[in-house]
Amino acid sequence: MTTVLSASGLTRRFGDRTVLDGVDLDVLPGRMTGFVGANGAGKTTTMRILLGVLAPSAGEVRWDGRPVSAADRRAFGYMPEERGLYPKQHVAEQLVHFGRLHGMSRPAAERAVADLLERLDLVPHADDKLESLSLGNQQRAQIAAALVHSPTALVLDEPFSGLDPLAVDAMAGLLRDEVARGVPVLFSSHQLDLVERLCDDVVVLAQGRRVAGGTVEELRSGGTVRLRLQVAAPSGAPSHGADLGWVRDVPGVEVADVDGAGALFVAVEPGAEQRVLAEALRRGPVTSFAPVVPPLSEIFREVVR
Ligand SMILES: Nc1ncnc2c1ncn2[C@@H]1O[C@H](COP(=O)(O)OP(=O)(O)OP(=O)(O)O)[C@@H](O)[C@H]1O
Question: Where does the ABC transporter domain start and stop, copy by copy (predicted)?
Answer without folding.
Answer: 5-232
